[in-house]
Amino acid sequence: MQVILGLLYHFIGGAASGSFYIPYNKVKKWSWESYWIVGGIFSWLLVPPLGAWLTAPGYLEILANAETSTLFYTYLMGLLWGIGGLTFGLSMRYLGLSLGMAIALGYCSAFGTLIPPIFYEIFGSQGNEKTISEIFSTMSGQVTLFGVFLCLVGIAICGKAGTMKEQEMPAEQKKESIKEFNFSKGLLVATFSGILSAFMAFGYATGKPIAEATVETGIDPLWQNNPVLVVILLGGLTTNFIWCIYLNFKNKSGSDYTNKQTPLLRNYFFSALAGITWYLQFFFYGMGESLFAQSGVGFTSWTLHMAFIIIISNLWGIYLKEWKGASRKTMFAIILGISTVILSTVVVGFGNYLAE
């Protein structure tokens, strides 16, 4: 039952992440940096404390009593993740939902899933975290790692479909659905984003003492990661806020926030909606990760989260006609890639079932 619920929570979180950029498309006459930081203030500053207060009412006292080193390293992981999140938004801007997420999350899935158990193998674990050798030594671990491998194969196929689209479609047609389409620039920022976005998984690891302290106060383990999120996302806010304000000055777009020549109410509403949707991915991810961790397979959470995001974002990409005009061969490739990712989630789920 825990595995089924965990999969459900990861699917909801993945759906939120795969859909969060859609409201930004409704923002009119604002620069990218303006609507990105307005959404970010909701997703990283306003909503996380509310979510923690509703589910773990005494979280402020828990954070006040946490070790300084725990708070620092959790914040630092959020700071680094924030750089990945910043370039993640640029990936969507230059590549579109389907291709941008496939490439960025391919790196993110691999680094976020495999590096923590390798780290625990080298430096040791302080709790029940699995090392890479422990994972390989069990049938459930081997099945789950095969699922991770399938996920990466599916992501690679999605990326290949994107390059095929780049080669066969004229620039004018590609920019009908993605106004600022730029494959080379998008590939660079997506790669950078995918690597640094994996630090969210490390943030959960460094914030483990906060999660444990939350459970010790009598809070349901399902909500233990919400106080950790408050710290991680403050780090993410720091990097994004600094960069976006810099761009406001550089591009002279600071007037966006009060310019009555733009649909201000509409822009604030859709930016806020995008930011809240962004936060919900981690709210539900934390719930799924808590259930998987209780079964000893928490390391698989990141891969599942990435896989569900890719599934949803590619479906959105098809719906928004980002692949309009692509050849049948290219469409077959993107469908094969999505199907492989879906299969990987089934394999990872079966691995979790064996462990439980």
TrEMBL record:
Q: In its UniProt entry, what is this protein called?
A: L-rhamnose/proton symporter RhaT
Keyword annotations for this protein, in alphabetical order, are:
Cell inner membrane, Cell membrane, Membrane, Sugar transport, Symport, Transmembrane, Transmembrane helix, Transport
Pfam family for this entry, one: RhaT
Q: Which stretches are transmembrane? A: 6-24, 36-60, 72-90, 102-123, 143-162, 183-207, 227-247, 268-287, 299-320, 332-355
Select a single GO molecular function from the record's annotations and give it. symporter activity
Name a GO CC annotation attached to this entry.
membrane
Q: Does the keyword Cell inner membrane apply?
A: yes
Q: Does the keyword Lipoprotein apply?
A: no
